[in-house]
Design a protein that fits this description.
Layout: H1 2-13, H2 26-29, E1 37-41, E2 47-51, E3 57-58, H3 63-75, H4 79-82, H5 96-100, H6 111-122, H7 127-142, E4 148-149, H8 151-160, H9 162-173, H10 181-192, E5 194-196, H11 198-204, H12 206-209, E6 213-214, E7 219-220, H13 224-237, H14 243-249, E8 254-256, E9 261-266, E10 270-275, H15 286-299
Antiparallel strand pairs: 1-2, 1-10, 3-5, 4-5, 6-7, 8-9, 9-10
Helix pairs in contact: 1-15, 3-6, 6-9, 6-10, 7-10, 7-11, 8-10, 9-10
Bound molecules: glutamine.
Length: 304
């Protein structure tokens, strides 16, 4: 495994076409695109890393997997009254579908869906309380109490988040946001601004590898049925309108973020985190996808 990861890092470091960093969030626009990291965490506790795998980056939309998990734990199937379970086929920040579908986002991983999920789990709490809950859940599943929120990224999103504000207000007009819109958005931006390294992220994904239990720590996080369903949502919706392409090239449940990270789950085999800040046109990590493609070719881990 270490040889495979070393080969991947070598190939990625030699790449000249690294995509574009997300520039609509000023704090992310300043990130050096010449970075690449990868970690493979196995259920038996072994961890293999190469490249910048210990450097924290903004996990952005990957956080939506964790908030969905939390929401399912708190309100169960009532989640599906707020958001659907279908791929959107539209960009992550699109507003068009929302009008046709009366303010109910297609799935929990597009921005509108994730904002609705934050609203669902706020349950009358202050945004700070909710954030503390999300952060402590992420620390628990990653088994790492040093994970924190990058306040500068959160402020940068807040200052420029006109699109997300529009999505949230639009949903509120249909009655699908119950709390104060600014409070919901504040919590959403902070959730997206959690900073994690590939090593921390791969650890956090381990519960999805082994039917809801992190076998390396022995903690059960969700039931096996729930883990299976979260994986299916990641496969169908985790890369927005690039989900079909990711399934075709990589063939694993995965979730991307505009910080350039991807969490991919090889069921019963491994939790994989990659990071390279340059994105393709859809907003998914360009080299991160290539690296996962190389990894599944070498390991045969595709679910297909
Ligand atoms: N925080 C980002 C946003 O709201 C998340 C988008 C993403 O990672 N795709 O736009």
């Amino acid at each position: 495994m270490q040889d495979i990861l070393n080969d991947i890092v070598k190939a990625m470091n030699a790449s000249t076409d690294r995509g574009q960093v997300a520039d609509y969030i000023p704090q992310l626009a300043a990130i050096d695109p010449n970075q690449f990291g990868i970690t493979v965490a196995l259920p038996d506790g072994q961890v293999f890393s190469a490249g910048c795998a210990q450097k924290p980056f903004s996990i952005q939309s990957i956080s939506k997997v964790f908030s969905l998990t939390l929401a399912l734990g708190k309100i169960g199937d009532a989640v599906w009254a707020k958001v659907g379970r279908e791929p959107s086929g539209d960009p992550f920040n699109s507003i068009v579908q929302l009008e046709h579908e009366h303010g109910k986002p297609r799935n929990p991983f597009i921005n509108a869906g994730a904002i609705a999920i934050v609203d669902a789990i706020m349950m009358g709490h202050e945004p700070k309380e909710l954030l503390a809950e999300i952060l402590s859940f992420v620390r628990y599943i990653a088994n790492d109490n040093s994970i924190s929120i990058d306040e500068k990224v959160a402020q940068s999103e807040l200052a420029t988040g006109h699109r997300n504000s529009s999505l949230a207000h639009f949903m509120a007009s249909f009655g699908n946001i119950e709390h104060d819109v600014d409070c919901v958005l504040g919590a959403y931006y902070h959730q997206c601004s959690i900073a994690m390294s590939c090593e921390q992220l791969a650890q956090a994904g381990l519960f999805l590898v082994s039917e809801g239990t992190n076998k390396s720590t022995g903690s059960r996080v969700v039931s096996s049925a729930r883990a299976r369903r979260i994986n299916s949502l990641m496969l169908m919706c985790g890369h927005y309108d690039g989900s079909g392409e990711f399934a075709y090239r990589v063939g694993l449940p995965g979730k991307s973020g505009v910080g350039g990270g991807i969490l991919a789950i090889a069921p019963n085999k491994a939790s994989i985190a990659v990071w390279s800040p340059g994105l393709d046109k859809i907003g998914n990590s360009k080299l991160g996808t290539q690296a996962l493609e190389m990894l599944v070719e070498r390991t045969g881990w595709s679910i297909f």
